[in-house]
């Protein structure tokens, strides 16, 4: 067994170990949310996965970023084939394991990956330029200051490293093959590195070429491994979570807010529509809490939403409140939920606080992250829901937090009190002296 | 004095043992807001002109609870909704016509979970059906060739995916429809939704209706068509703030039909 093989196995083992821990933690964090009843309908769900997640349908509302994003996405998906080979080669100490068996098809696949990688390189450079040079409002909102912007740039730089790795690895390999070097079997001419390789590395001696090829190979795989771990700390989880997120997304009409059966039944028994439910209510002395105060009160899929959010800001760019200078930003709502989940998760990891009845109390809540000013600026217009390419729903947590504030805290904007009182007393949003049908007197026959 | 046309109440139908074709759900705005009352009158004129048997609940109608629910007051919503459902089910109501996308949405999408199942239709859809069936004809050509723009309401458009029906109705007017820059799925809210209608704005640079009105004025259209009483108020206020109320008029699509037919 070669030193490289041993090194690879060690790295693979380490990455698997850390990865397993990080992704188990992620799963636990998502499940800190409430259980939800799903409308089953697997057919519709899979069709969403196919069209929206895999097919990126909602990205194509805006063609230019959609196509650039597609370049990177396609390269990412297809490169997985090469990644399998890299892992096989790494474990067994082989070199281009699939080449011999696949023959001409292998040349085609690697060429295809190279062409997609070239497109991805182009898109990555445009994206770096767009994010840092162009003054695109959605990338310059207050919530993007500091880490979120750095995170975005690190990902793009990681992408450049990956592409550099592929270029060195394949380019040097092409030159080595021309020299008939040992351990570098013929694979046919790759579309790009067959000319780029000789142009960059032609004339170098064999050992230097092998060093470049190995450097490229290791750079590529180490970047991939780091990326797998880094994802769990970054905004970039959408490359994995977009799929389950779209699958589990709400299928009910956007117009239907989640019903609250406990309140419905309470009101029904008040109205005498169902027998009094006092007997069951006596079981708990505590006043029930309604709506969402903290992450435990959110549906688990809202937490999945928060981890899926890649902070692109398409929601915020469409939000009427944000567009007119209010503090509300739907993207920030998702970022805040994730930050709060991470805070809770850290507390749990360190064993500082224990869970009790599926919740825990560290004296903080989502309200320490989100101002009421943000919650109450929302017009419930659903523009954010419509805008999200991966079917995140920022509106639900906003409305759930309003429910907590109004129902459990009896707080909320005082302007609403007259409206509430009026509905309660006269059944209309305004208190008017006239009868509800007074307007009908305006309906007159046409005079001839 | 002009002779008024009396709209039957559901209770009268029940007494007489008759069943109207449709229940017209007027809503709080249609009942009490001076501007929206004109829409309620317009739709009633159209129904009357076409001899469609319809009735209203009169003083038995009550707020659907939509603003309470979106404000977060679920108790109040449930009280309203369950009361309304009791009344609607008591009359065995099948089909409901609304002139407000918020009433439309709540009746259609939120009442079923509480035991209220009806065939709910917004007036833009109903008008389109009547035009398609050849029952409603638009005559007069008041708007022929005139530049007109259309504002999508959130709860008809983005929330309930009704984009074509109101446009089809406008087509019947033979007007020159200029789309707003942000239309259909990207339609910008008028600023009233989510119970914002009943409170002051949070601090910001400007009001949402001002943002929308800028876009409307940029089209150069003198007529703005809408389908929601709250949009009518917000857009009207925004136009007034720009002092353009003499030049640019905001109408509900039903009013345009009534004007055109000189009813």
List keywords for this structure.
heterodimer, A: 448 residues, mainly alpha, B: 263 residues, alpha/beta, Rossmann fold, four-stranded parallel β-sheet, 11 helices, 43% helix
How would you describe what is shown here?
The complex is a heterodimer of chains A (448) and B (263). Chain A has two domains: 3-30 and 62-248; 261-426, Alpha-helical ferredoxin (Fumarate Reductase Iron-sulfur Protein, Chain B, domain 2). Chain A is elongated and about 95 Å long. Chain A has helices at 3-30, 42-54, 63-92, 97-102, 104-132, 147-178, 193-201, 206-231, 238-248, 261-270, 278-281, 300-308, 314-318, 320-323, 330-349, 372-375, 383-387, 395-408, 416-426. The mean pLDDT of chain A is 93. In chain A, helix 3 (63-92) packs across helix 5 and helix 9 packs antiparallel against helix 12. By secondary structure, chain A is mostly helical. Chain A is 60% helix and 0% strand. The longest helix of chain A has 32 residues, at 147-178. In chain A, 38% of the residues are buried. Chain B has 263 residues and is an alpha/beta fold. Chain B starts with 7 loop residues before the first strand and ends with a helix. Helices cover 43% and strands 13% of the residues of chain B. Chain B has helices at 10-16, 27-32, 34-49, 66-71, 74-90, 101-110, 123-132, 164-171, 208-219, 229-241, 253-261, and strands at residues 8-9, 22-25, 54-56, 95-98, 119-122, 147-150, 176-179, 223-226, 249-252. In chain B, the strands form two sheets. A five-stranded parallel beta sheet of chain B has the order 1-3-2-4-5. In chain B, helix 3 (34-49) crosses helix 11 (253-261), helix 7 packs across helix 8 (164-171) and helix 9 (208-219) packs across helix 10 (229-241). Chain B folds into two domains: 8-128, Rossmann fold, CATH 3.40.50.1860; 138-261, Rossmann fold (3-Layer(aba) Sandwich), CATH 3.40.50. The chains are: A mainly alpha (448), B alpha/beta (263).
């Amino acid at each position: 067994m070669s030193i490289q093989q041993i090194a690879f196995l060690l790295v693979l083992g380490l990455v698997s170990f850390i990865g397993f821990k990080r992704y188990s933690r992620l799963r636990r964090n998502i499940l800190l949310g409430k259980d939800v009843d799903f409308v089953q309908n697997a057919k519709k769900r899979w069709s969403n996965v196919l069209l929206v997640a895999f097919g990126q349908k909602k990205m194509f509302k805006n063609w230019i970023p959609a196509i650039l994003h597609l370049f990177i996405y396609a390269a990412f998906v297809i490169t997985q084939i090469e990644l399998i080979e890299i892992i096989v080669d790494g474990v067994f100490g082989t070199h281009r394991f699939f080449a011999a068996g696949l023959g001409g098809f292998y040349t085609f696949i690697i060429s295809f990956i190279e062409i997609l990688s070239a497109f991805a390189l182009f898109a990555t450079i445009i994206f770096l330029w767009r994010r840092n040079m162009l003054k695109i409002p959605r990338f310059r909102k207050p919530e993007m200051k500091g880490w979120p912007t750095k995170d975005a740039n690190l990902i793009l730089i990681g992408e450049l490293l990956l592409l550099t790795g592929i270029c060195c690895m394949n380019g040097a390999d092409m030159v080595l093959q021309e020299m008939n070097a040992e351990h570098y079997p013929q694979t046919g001419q790759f579309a790009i590195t067959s000319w780029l390789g000789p142009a960059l590395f032609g004339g170098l001696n064999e050992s230097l070429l092998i060093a470049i090829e190995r450097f490229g190979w290791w750079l590529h795989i180490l970047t991939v491994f780091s990326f797998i771990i880094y994802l769990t700390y970054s905004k970039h989880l959408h490359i994995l979570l977009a799929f389950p997120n779209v699958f589990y997304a709400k299928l009910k009409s956007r117009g239907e807010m989640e019903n609250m059966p406990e309140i419905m039944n309470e009101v029904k028994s008040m109205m005498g529509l169902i027998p009094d439910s006092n007997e069951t209510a006596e079981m708990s002395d505590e006043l029930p809490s309604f709506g969402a105060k903290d992450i435990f009160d959110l549906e688990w899929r809202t937490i999945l939403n928060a981890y899926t959010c890649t902070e692109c800001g398409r929601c915020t760019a469409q939000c009427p409140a944000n567009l007119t200078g209010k503090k509300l930003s739907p993207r920030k709502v998702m970022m805040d939920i994730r930050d709060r989940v991470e805070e809770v998760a850290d507390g749990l990891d360190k064993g500082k606080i224990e869970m009790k009845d599926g919740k825990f109390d560290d004296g903080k809540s989502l309200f320490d992250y989100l101002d009421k000013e943000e919650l109450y600026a929302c017009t419930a217009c659903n523009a954010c829901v419509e805008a999200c390419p991966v079917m995140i729903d920022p509106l639900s947590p906003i409305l759930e937090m309003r429910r907590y504030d109004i129902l459990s805290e009896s707080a909320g904007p005082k302007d609403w009190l007259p409206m509430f009182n009026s509905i309660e007393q006269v059944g209309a949003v305004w208190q008017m002296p006239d009868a509800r049908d007074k307007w009908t007197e305006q309906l007159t026959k046409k005079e001839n | 004095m002009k002779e008024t046309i009396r709209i039957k109440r559901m209770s009268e139908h029940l007494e007489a043992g008759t069943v109207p074709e449709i229940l017209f759900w007027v809503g709080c705005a249609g009942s009490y807001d001076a501007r929206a009352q004109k829409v309620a009158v317009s739709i009633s004129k159209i129904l009357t002109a076409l001899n469609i048997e319809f009735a209203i609940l009169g003083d038995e109608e009550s707020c659907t609870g939509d603003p309470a629910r979106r404000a977060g007051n679920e108790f109040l919503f449930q009280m309203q909704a369950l009361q309304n459902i009791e009344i609607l089910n008591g009359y065995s109501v099948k089909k409901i016509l609304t002139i407000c996308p918020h009433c439309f949405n709540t009746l259609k999408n939120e009442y079923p979970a509480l035991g209220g199942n009806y065939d709910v239709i917004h007036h833009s859809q109903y008008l389109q059906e009547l035009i398609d069936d050849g029952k409603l004809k638009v005559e007069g050509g008041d708007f022929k060739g005139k530049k007109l723009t259309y504002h999508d309401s959130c709860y008809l458009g983005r929330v309930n995916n009704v984009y074509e029906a109101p446009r089809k109705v406008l087509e019947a007017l033979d007007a020159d429809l200029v789309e707003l820059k942000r239309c259909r799925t990207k339609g910008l809210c008028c600023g009233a939704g989510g119970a914002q209608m009943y409170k002051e704005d949070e601090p910001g640079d400007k009001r949402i209706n001002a943002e929308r009105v800028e876009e409307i004025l940029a089209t150069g259209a003198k007529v703005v068509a809408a389908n929601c009483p709250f949009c009518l108020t917000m857009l009207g206020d925004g136009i007034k703030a720009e002092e353009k109320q003499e030049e640019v008029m905001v109408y509900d699509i039903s009013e345009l039909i009534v004007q055109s037919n000189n009813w």
